[in-house]
């Protein structure tokens, strides 16, 4: 049973392919390469990355690779859909900025920064890498990709059953607050348990309060990750409304451990 773990994009990435063989080993090789490729394009921690080269050119129509263009395009769509609760931009000086300060040309595939800003594509880029890895693994049918809690579960586990995913209790270490059975979908959780206050409300710049964790099930990890972050910022009522408007299933746990679920959650829990 090939299970391989490596460090990529600042986290541990584990891929589980229950049925061994040469095809599985080759697919794992290709899947891990996607994490390296996406990171080289989209990381903000390497001055030589394509993303950092972009942020150094304000007011210039910069031709972009397909990876960077699509990652940023998706991030801007998520920002628009969430009313700015998810926003990949941050000020590089004192001037306020938002996702509206980034312009895309879909025909020329260029990106233009309308004012100086920084871009953080971490969440959606990791989700994209998970999705691209899953695409490489799809011929195997049965596989699991886990990139620091961003999951894509394909087919069945080694027992021929849907994959079981535990949802970490946001306050009691070592405990679960629930579990899911998932097949051919992504699961992503945003929580305050690892770094309290690490999810900021882009609209105010202040740490988001009132929510302890959000778990989202979606067709892609990129979508699940962006929506989990946005719902965390929006809070239980607006967060559930956003998830339902996007046709995904989710659970929002408040700081007081109240559970707010979208319609359809009972079908997977």
Describe the structure.
- With 269 residues, the chain is α+β, with helices and mostly antiparallel strands.
- It has two domains: 57-120, no CATH class; 124-267, Roll (T-fold), CATH 3.10.520.10.
- The protein has six helices and 15 strands.
- The protein has helices spanning 22-42, 50-55, 66-81, 122-137, 221-234, 236-245, and strands at residues 3-8, 11-16, 62-63, 89-91, 102-105, 110-113, 117-119, 143-147, 150-154, 163-168, 176-182, 185-191, 211-218, 249-254, 259-261.
- Strands 1-2-8-9-12-13-14-15 form an eight-stranded antiparallel beta sheet, with helices on one face.
- Strand 1 (3-8) and strand 2 form a beta hairpin.
- Helix 4 (122-137) packs antiparallel against helix 5 (221-234) and helix 5 (221-234) packs antiparallel against helix 6.
- The radius of gyration is 18 Å and the shape is globular.
- The mean pLDDT is 91.
């Amino acid at each position: 049973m090939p299970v391989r773990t490596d460090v990529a994009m600042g986290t541990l990435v584990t891929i589980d392919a229950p049925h061994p063989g040469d095809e599985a080993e080759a697919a794992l090789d290709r899947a891990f390469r996607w994490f390296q490729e996406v990171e080289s394009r989209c990381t903000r921690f390497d001055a030589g990355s394509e993303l950092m080269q972009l942020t150094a050119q304000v007011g210039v129509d910069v031709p972009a690779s397909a990876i960077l263009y699509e990652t940023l395009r998706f991030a801007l769509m998520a920002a628009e859909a969430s009313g700015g609760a998810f926003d990949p931009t941050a000020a590089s000086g004192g001037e306020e900025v938002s996702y509206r300060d980034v312009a895309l040309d879909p025909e020329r595939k260029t990106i233009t920064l309308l004012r100086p800003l920084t871009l953080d594509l971490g969440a959606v880029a990791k989700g994209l890498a998970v999705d691209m890895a899953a695409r490489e693994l799809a011929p195997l049918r049965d596989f699991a990709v886990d990139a620091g809690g961003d999951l894509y579960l394909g087919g069945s586990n080694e027992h021929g059953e849907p994959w079981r995913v535990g949802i970490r209790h946001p306050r009691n270490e070592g405990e679960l607050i629930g579990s899911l059975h998932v097949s051919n979908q992504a699961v992503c959780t945003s929580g305050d348990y690892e770094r309290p206050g690490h999810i900021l409300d882009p609209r105010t710049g202040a740490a988001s309060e009132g929510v302890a964790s959000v778990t989202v099930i979606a067709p892609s990890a990129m979508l699940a990750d962006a929506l989990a972050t946005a719902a965390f910022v929006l809070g239980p009522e607006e967060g559930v409304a956003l998830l339902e408007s996007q046709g995904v299933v989710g659970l929002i746990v408040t700081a007081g451990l109240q559970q707010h679920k979208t319609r359809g959650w009972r079908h997977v829990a």
